[in-house]
Design goal:
Layout lengths: L4 H15 L6 H15 L9 H5 L7 H9 L5 H4 L4 H4 L6 E4 L2 E4 L7 H10 L13 H14 L5 H12 L14 H16 L5 H22 L8 H15 L11 H17 L15 H39 L5 H5 L27 H9 L13 H26 L5 H6 L3 H14 L4 H11 L1
Antiparallel strand pairs: 1-2
Helix pairs in contact: 1-2, 1-4, 4-9, 7-8, 7-9, 7-10, 8-9, 9-10, 9-11, 10-11, 12-14, 13-14, 14-17, 16-17, 19-20
C-alpha cells in the first residue's frame, strides 16, 4: 500500500537528521514536512511537486536529502509570491521594486542569510536574477534559517551549496571552467571565515567533497535529459509546459493562438539550449565516459522534443488557419472538442478523421507518441496527439517541417490563412475541414464555403 505523501516527507527529514546526529525530534520533522508539502503541492504546480523530491532522493546522503527537500521550496513567479508556509521563513530577505525582488541589507545576527548570500555571490541592493538563482537562493535561505540551530554549520553550508548547484543551464566558461568550479572558489572563501584554524588541505578536502555532492545532486535534478526513452523526457517537458503557462490551466478556454505560443516558446527554449550546459562536472565527477553519455543523451532528447513540438505547431497551424479564415481566433476546444466532460466522453475532431496510411518517411518513435500518447498524463491537454499523427502520416518528417515553415509566414502576416492552406495537401486539408465542421458547429457553414474556395 502507498504511504501518504506527508508521511514520506516526515520519514525523509527524520532519517536525514538522525544520520547527521542532529538533535531534532519527530514532531519537528513533522512540522518541516508540512512546510514543504504546503509549498510544493499547490494547484499551480505540475512538475516541481513533492513527487519530484521522491524521484531524487534514492541513494543520496543525508545532506543531499535535505537539499532535495528544500531546493524547490520557493518558485516565486509560479506561486505568485511566497506561500503562507514559507513567507515567515523569508521575512526581511527581499523587497519588491518595480516587479523585481531586491536583496535587503543583511542584519549582523542573520548568519543564515549572510552565508547564503556568500555562497550565491549575491549582494544587498542587488536585483535577484529571475532565471539565474532567485528561486534557488530563496529556497536555500529558507533551508538555512530552519537548519541553522539544528545542524552543525558545515553540514548546513553543504546543504546550501547543493541547492546552489541546482541553478540550471549555466554555460561553461571560455576557459572550460564549470559553474561548479566557481562554487568551489566561493566555498573556499566561506570556509576560511567559518573555520579559520583549518589547514588549507583540510579546507580544500571539505570543499571538494561538498561540491562533488552538489554536482551529483544537480545532475540528478535534471536527470530526465539523459533518459534512454525520449518519450519519458517529453513527458517531463510537458509537465513543465503545464506548470509554467497559466493560460493552459483554463482547460477548454485557452485559444488556438495561446496554445501555439506556448508550444513555440518551449521549442525556442529547447532549440537554443546547449546540451553541454545541462549537466555539470567537477574533478572527475562524473567520469569522462559518463559525461560523454549524458551530453549525447541530452542532445538526442532535446532534438526529439523539438521535432515533436514542431510537428504539434504545424498541425495546430492548420486549425488556426481554419479558424482565422472562417472568423477569428477561438478556444482550441471549439474546433478539436473538449479534453474532458462531465457528460461522458466528448466528441473530438479525430473521431471524424479517416484512417490514412503512412505516405512519406516518418520518425517511427515520434509517430508512436503522437498515436499512443506521452507516458505521463497532463491535466491541460490530451496525452496523445491524433490530429498531429494524421498530419504526420500524410506529410512525413520533411513535409511537416515544410508546413511549419509556411505556417511561420502566416503567424507573422506574410501570408494569409487561405494562402497557407493552399500550400498544403488538398486531400489532407479537405479531411480536416470536414472533421472540424462536425465539431465547430457555429463555423460549419463557413468551413464548407472555405472548402469550395480551396477547390
Amino acid at each position: 500500500m502507498a504511504i501518504a505523501t506527508i508521511n514520506r516527507l516526515i520519514t525523509l527529514f527524520d532519517g536525514a537528521f538522525k544520520a547527521l546526529a542532529a538533535p531534532v525530534c519527530l514532531a519537528e520533522s513533522e512540522r518541516l514536512a508540512m512546510v514543504v508539502q504546503f509549498a510544493m503541492d499547490s494547484r499551480v504546480r505540475a512538475y516541481h511537486t513533492s513527487a519530484h523530491i521522491f524521484g531524487l532522493v534514492e541513494g543520496l546522503n543525508p545532506r543531499q536529502v535535505l537539499a532535495a527537500l528544500f531546493h524547490d521550496l520557493v518558485y516565486y513567479q509560479l506561486d505568485g509570491g511566497f506561500p503562507e508556509s514559507t513567507a515567515d521563513l523569508l521575512q526581511g530577505v527581499v523587497r519588491v521594486q518595480e516587479g523585481a525582488l531586491v536583496l535587503q541589507p543583511i542584519a549582523p545576527d542573520d548568519t543564515a542569510l549572510a552565508l547564503c548570500a556568500a555562497v550565491f555571490n549575491f549582494q544587498p541592493g542587488q536585483v535577484l536574477p529571475l532565471y539565474e538563482g532567485l528561486n534557488e537562493f530563496l529556497s536555500a535561505v529558507a533551508a538555512a534559517r530552519v537548519l541553522s540551530d539544528r545542524l552543525e554549520v558545515m553540514d548546513m553550508l553543504a546543504v546550501v551549496a547543493c541547492i546552489e548547484a541546482t541553478i540550471p543551464f549555466r554555460p561553461t566558461a571560455m576557459d572550460g571552467t564549470f559553474s561548479a568550479d566557481i562554487l568551489a572558489a566561493r566555498l573556499n572563501r566561506v570556509c576560511q571565515g567559518l573555520q579559520p584554524d583549518w589547514p588549507a588541505e583540510v579546507r580544500q578536502a571539505y570543499v571538494d567533497k561538498v561540491v562533488r555532492e552538489g554536482v551529483q545532486f544537480a545532475n540528478r535534478d535534471v536527470g530526465s535529459f539523459a533518459y534512454d526513452d525520449p518519450g519519458l523526457f517529453l513527458s517531463s517537458t510537458w509537465l513543465l509546459i503545464d506548470e509554467s503557462n497559466a493560460p493552459l490551466t483554463r482547460v477548454g478556454v485557452y485559444t488556438l493562438r495561446q496554445y501555439r505560443d506556448v508550444l513555440m516558446r518551449m521549442e525556442t527554449f529547447l532549440g537554443m539550449l546547449n546540451p553541454e550546459s545541462v549537466f555539470q562536472r567537477y574533478q572527475g565527477t562524473p567520469s569522462e565516459q559518463e559525461w560523454t553519455h549524458l551530453c549525447a543523451a541530452a542532445t538526442h532528447n532535446i532534438a526529439f522534443a523539438c521535432d515533436f513540438l514542431d510537428a504539434k505547431v504545424a498541425s495546430m497551424a492548420l486549425i488556426e488557419a481554419l479558424a482565422l479564415a472562417t472568423g477569428s481566433d477561438c478556444p482550441v476546444s471549439m474546433f478539436l472538442g473538449d479534453i474532458r466532460s462531465t457528460q461522458g466522453r466528448p466528441d473530438r475532431v479525430h473521431d471524424f478523421l479517416p484512417q490514412v496510411p503512412i505516405c512519406a518517411e516518418v520518425d517511427a518513435d515520434l509517430l508512436e507518441i503522437f498515436e499512443k500518447g506521452r507516458n505521463l498524463a497532463s491535466q491541460n491537454d490530451l496525452a496523445a496527439s491524433p490530429l498531429t499523427a494524421f498530419v504526420y502520416r500524410h506529410l512525413g518528417f520533411e513535409g511537416t517541417r515544410k508546413t511549419l515553415r509556411h505556417a511561420r509566414d502566416m503567424f507573422v502576416g506574410i501570408t494569409t490563412p487561405l494562402a497557407f492552406l493552399q500550400t498544403q495537401n488538398p486531400e489532407m486539408v479537405r479531411a480536416i475541414i470536414q472533421a472540424c465542421s462536425r465539431i465547430a458547429l457555429s463555423r460549419s457553414a463557413a468551413l464548407q464555403e472555405l472548402q469550395r474556395a480551396l477547390e
